[in-house]
Amino acid sequence: MPDTAPGPVPGTGPSGGPGPAGLDAFIAGLPKAELHVHHVGSASPRIVAELAARHPDSAVPADPAALADFFTFRDFAHFIQVYLSVVDLIRDAEDVRLLTFEVARDMARQNIRYAELTVTPFSSTRRGIHEQAFMEAIEDARKAAESELGVTLRWCFDIPGEAGLESAEQTAHLALDLRPEGLVSFGLGGPEIGVPRPQFKPYFDRARAAGLHSVPHAGETTGPETIWDALRDLGAERIGHGTSAVRDPRLLEHLAEHRVPLEVCPTSNIATRAVATLDEHPMKEMVAAGVLVTVNSDDPPMFGTDLNTEYAVAARLLGLDHTGVAALARNAVEASFLDAAGKRALAAEIDAYAAAYTAAGPGARTAS
Ligand SMILES: [Zn+2]
Predict the structure, then answer these.
(1) N or C: fewer beta carbons within 10 Å in the chain?
(2) Residue 3: helix, strand or coil by DSSP?
(3) What would the mean pLDDT of 343-350 be, rounded to a whole number?
(4) In which region does residue 223 sit, left (phi positive, over 0), alpha (psi from -120 to 50) or beta (all else)?
(5) CA 168 to ligand 1 centroid distance, Å
(6) How far apart are CA 285 and CA 282, in angstroms?
(7) Assigned architecture for domain 21-45+109-127+152-175+183-361
(8) How far is the CA of 37 from the centre of ligand 1 (A)?
(9) CA of 361 relative to ligand 1 center, distance in Å
């Protein structure tokens, strides 16, 4: 929950456009943490062009203009097509390293200082990338991102639910037997319908016993019962999406009381039709119930968004001014798996940035 009570902001409203220019500039410069963003799903047209150039036999255009059209979000089926085309471009460890580092570069441009990137190693190792080489590639990129770009990356290894228990076993093996230094959590993605959460309990039990945090997707395209399953059977410490939580007041109460954060991804929810329109997004009800809400971008270029845009959307939906937006950024730090010192340092950066903005006064607020 934001520390500052949200209040109406002149110029924004349920049917208004993006927030005021001053607020957009504030968001752009704000140091941020992102907790729900996928590795392959973060490949921007620029990155895909670089990957396509490495693999001229691929069907994906390497020409930026053609790629821009390819990437224009049309519907969910088109998103899957783009996603799978990018998966097809990740063929060797160098592709993995390039993708990871370049994703961090796109994050640095948005002043994202810390990200827990959801990686699906099963997709790559199944396609023949050697598992040890995969780990070295992401770790290499992580270290370079930290030293060259000032972006701290941590990994969430997720089970692609649609690939069944074989993928769960393999993901647990990769997470626990080849555990890279940056790995902090264990997740579950893919479709929810027809993929009951409880079947993955043994794999989450093993991951949690090894000290990994539990962050499954739940309640995105199914009802609140899936979120209860994730809490009860998978020991969820944060919920990916959790959009349908608002249909169960007792669940909202439980999430608020036990400080289980929701990783909310507004534009993604519209793209996948989990929510019909942005104005109907239940974020406000989540906040009103006292749930710790974080704002995230999920698969940003594929949904035509980025984290800064998601913050602007959240500011409009919640009626936040710059202090409310800064509080939202602090929520992500609090909900992250950074250690206590890391949390304090990033929260202090956010506070210093917000204080400097306030001190500069309204005249200076639109100058940047
Ligand atoms: Zn996701």
Answers:
(1) C
(2) coil
(3) 98
(4) beta
(5) 17
(6) 5
(7) Alpha-Beta Barrel (3.20)
(8) 6
(9) 38
